[in-house]
Amino acid sequence: MSEHSSSLMPYVLVLVGLLALTALTVLVALVDFGHPWSDAVALAIALSKASLVVLFFMHVKGSTPLIKLAAAGGFFWMLIFFAFILSDVLERTTLVSGWE
Amino acid sequence: MSTNVAAEASHPAPGDKPVHYLNWAYGVRSWLLTTDHKRIGILYLISITFFFFIGGIYATLIRLELLTPQADLVQPDTYNRLFTMHGIMMIFFFLIPSIPAVLGNFCIPLMIGAKDVAFPKLNLASWYMFMIGSTMAMFSLITGGVDTGWTFYTPFSTTYSNTYVAPVAIGIFVNGFSSIFTGVNFMATIHRMRAPGMTWFKLPLFVWSHYATSLIMVLGTPVLAITLVLVALERLFHFGFFDPAYGGDPVLFQHLFWFYSHPAVYIMILPGMGVVSEIIAAFSRKPVFGYRFVAFASLGIAAIGFLVWGHHLFLSSQGVYAGMIFSAISMMVAVPSAVKVFNWMATLFRGSIEYSTPMFYALGFIGLFVIGGLTGVMLATLGIDIHVHDTYFVVAHFHYIMVGSAVMGYLGGLHYWWPKITGRLYSGFWSHLSALLIFLGFNLTFFPQFLLGYLGMPRRYHVYPEEFQVLHVLSTAGASVLAVGYVIPLVYFLWSLKWGRVAGDNPWQAAGLEWHTSSPPPVHNFTTPPVLAPDAEPYHYDEELLTGTPSPELA
Amino acid sequence: MSETSSVTVHAPGLAHHFDSYEQQKETSLLGMWLFLVQEVMFFGGLFVTYVYYRSLYPHAFNVGARELDVLWGTVNTGVLLLSSFTMVVAVMGAKHGSRGGLLAGLWGTIGFGLLFLGIKYVEYSSKWEHQLVPGLNFDWHGEAARGIEIFFSLYFGMTGMHALHMVVGIAIMFFMLRPAARGKWTPENHNFVEGFGLYWHFVDIVWIFLFPFLYLIGLASE
Description:
The structure holds three protein chains of three kinds.
Chain A (H helix, E strand, L loop, with lengths): L8 H21 L5 H23 L7 H31 L5
Chain B lengths: L4 H5 L18 H5 L4 H29 L10 H20 L2 H15 L7 H23 L13 H5 L4 H28 L12 H33 L12 H35 L6 H14 L15 H13 L1 H15 L8 H24 L1 H7 L3 H31 L5 H28 L13 H31 L56
Helix pairs in contact in B: 3-4, 3-5, 3-6, 3-18, 5-8, 5-9, 5-16, 6-8, 8-9, 9-10, 9-11, 10-13, 10-14, 10-16, 11-13, 13-14, 14-16, 14-17, 16-17, 17-18
Chain C lengths: L20 H36 L1 H8 L4 H26 L3 H31 L15 H37 L9 H25 L7
Helix pairs in contact in C: 1-2, 1-5, 1-6, 2-5, 3-4, 3-6, 4-5, 5-6
């Protein structure tokens, strides 16, 4: 499962990437992309950062299929939760006006 | 870290009784600090039996009040506490742990040929979480109980109720860790601790259904946990999550609550289905028909079961289109359940049927599950649910599943594996009698409730119109028969510990690794770790096992 | 009487119910990942609540977010990422039998963790001073007060739950220092360190999502 090299360099590179993405997410937030797009971009950057942590810091990249399935599965299951609840709240907020 | 005390104790002196997991060490410490999955199963057995009877006392009081249309036994506020505590005790402190924590803990390592579960200390921690959580809930019970219904709907539970909601919520939260730890443990055990040659498709279906149950425990319980945290925050600090007065939305609570609580009902039924698969095979002397279909159906029920929670919100101002989606998927979840029922029927067909007590329970399970399941499909139908939501129709539906199926599955499993757990047989006469009493008493209690609900009797009401009294009286009469049926096993099981006939390794002549070790099993389950041949089958009934001897139950 | 399996001599650090270090390691790793799956669902409930209320009160959420200090939030994000890096150093140390590496990594992670919590304390105090703590002293003069109060309920609920997980993590690390110094964790068996590392990275990931959606929303539009 794990490489036997004791070099920290790959992890340093990942850290640099994570810090750069953090800076990026702040800069991007200063620009108004309009309603769904600002959130979409923020989400995309956050997902990229999370993926770097999961794949490299948490060693999922070199791990067994079962571990990969567990990692992906948990995240996927949360998405299901989101999707179904959103179907309800978006229906109620878009069809019923004057919420605020 | 476990010591090697077992090593010394496992070598009996000549002429001594065989050493097994019950007698290799005595004393309170050896039980309260055990990491042996078999002893932990027994710890759970004792604790959940206690809570079953507490929940039963509440049920008795409810049924007594409902004998008459007026409020003559208890105050309305008290009645609210009765049905709330009945639900909480039965669901969280009896049903959810029951089969997994008792029979799953005991049998799974044996069935897969392992020495123990993957994380024995976590297993013990799981029982302690159960004990701590249930003690907190009991504290609330003693100080007057909770009156919100086991569903804790907001803002009543967070703002307006005058009862001890927070301690119960925290108790259930802690108890949730018991579920989560058990789920993690079982999944890791089934993945990593199988004996050599024990491939996935040689596993008993009991193991498959517990794997599916564990998936639900791990994925669903944390959502209940966070929901309870939010309820506690709102109740204690007025964080306005669910109270409209603070801008919150009560429907959000219902979404969060039912996201767990619907899959929770599959936690309660899947293990029972696993028990039924084992019992039907053993007492038809045949492999389960359509093994892979049944195995995948367990996973299917677990997966689809997560997508239907909105059917509890049909009348809660959930959006209509969302409601339609949930309704359609709720009907789909009936499919894998039906697949199992048909496969059990096909297993029985042309089998060599033996009407042992476990078989009585398994057959009862199948019939009552069909009724409960079909009425569930009726409830999933939006048009019907508008009329029967929050009536006794719903109450009858879920009791057919949770009592008629799940509890009978638990009792069937207990009767099936009792000889393995204790090394003793129990009275065939009394066990058959109590199974019959339970079946008849159950139907007399709950079938009238379908009629009551259909005629308009609301749930959680202690008063009702005169014309409903006949049905209520029938229901209470049934409940008294049911109660007798539940008490009798307590007597003969305890009796069997001292005076029951010695069971031997395989009194049922059943297939399965658990029957190829002594009764009770040795501390590390097998004297020689099993290895399976490539052509081994999960339910291998052949001439060697068919000796034609009658049921060994009769004492 | 045939021999019992418990008579075998077991290798040091190998639990009796496992047959090999490999099995023990794979099992322990799987167990930790399954625990993290349930943590995902636990925080997922909070994120769902966030999405739900943000859909209902989009403007209020943007206004509320302007009260948060973007600088502190960004610094804290960096601090936590650095703590994940030091955690990697610790695990690598254990894997290669380097007690010094393990201890340096643990101390580094503890240090960054405490720094994070210190900054959070500064932020929370500021919220208290500005009367933005729901249920205790929340007082908003202006429109959309209800939505803003919900925003702050979520802010405290989510960052508070996250901080609680960090406190637990830091406490565990303190308890790890002595066994680490004594060489308890070897290249064959350092499952505890690796498992804890996974937990710590998970806590970092939660913050990776909390930061943009609590601190940075409405930055451009308000």
